[in-house]
Design brief:
Layout (H helix, E strand, L loop, with lengths): L4 H10 L6 E6 L2 E6 L2 E7 L2 E5 L2 H10 L3 E3 L10 E4 L7 H17 L4
Antiparallel strand pairs: 1-2, 2-3, 3-4, 4-6, 5-6
Length: 110
Amino acid sequence: MAFDERLAERIRAVLADRSDVDERMMFGGIAFLVAGNMCCGVNRDDLVVRLDPDDAEELLDAEEGARPMDLTGRPMRGWLFVSADATAADADLERWVRRAEAFAASLPAK
């Protein structure tokens, strides 16, 4: 499973202030869970984010580099891939990760 280790390190830095973050190997990369709920991850060189499905739909039109997460031929509602170009700046990566973190933290802990 090849994924961008540097991107994973950058995500770890964004989430470093939380004590409830776990990591798991998933979807051909690494996933970060907040309170047991999927938050974000890395698949190859893309950031993967889990968001409120309605917010995700809006961001597809509003944000450069965002596209539906589709690993099987059926896009997953509420999940987006964000291109490496769109997360190259630390502030852009943090903005995406914080969105996903807020959604994961809004769900009941597992």
